[in-house]
Amino acid sequence: MKYDYAVIKSPRITEKATLQKEKANQVVFEVARDANKIEIKNAVERIFKVQVLAVQTAKVKGKPKRVGRYMGYRPDTKKAIVRLFPGETIEFFEGV
C-alpha cells in the first residue's frame, strides 16, 4: 500500500478540466506513473473525504523540447480522471 500523497501528485487545472468539473462532475489529477485505479480511488476518498464513482487513467507522453541546439524531452506523466457521485465536490481554489 502506498502513501496517499505519493499517489496523488497535483490537480491538473486546465480549461478542459474545468469544463469537466462543471458539466460531468469529474476532477483531473496528475498521479504517480505506477499507481493503479484502485489506489487512486482510495487515495482521493481518504484525502478529500468524497465518494468516487469511477476512475479513468491515461498515460501522457512527454513533449520534445529544445534548449539552444540541444534536444530533450519532458518526462512522461500519468493523469487520472475521477468521476464523483452526484452532490460531491472538490474545491481547489475557494473564494478566488
Outline the structure in words.
The chain is an alpha+beta fold and about 100 residues long. It has one domain: 2-Layer Sandwich (Alpha-Beta Plaits), CATH 3.30.70. The chain is built from 3 helices and 6 strands, in the order H-E-H-E-H-E-E-E-E. It has helices spanning about 5, 15-25, 35-50; strands at about 10, 25-30, 50-60, 65, 70-75, 75-85. The strands form 2 sheets. It has a 4-stranded antiparallel β-sheet with strand order 1-2-6-3. It has a two-stranded antiparallel sheet with strand order 4-5. A hairpin with a 2-residue loop joins strand 4 and strand 5. The longest helix has 12 residues, at about 35-50. It is globular and about 50 Å long. The mean pLDDT is about 90.
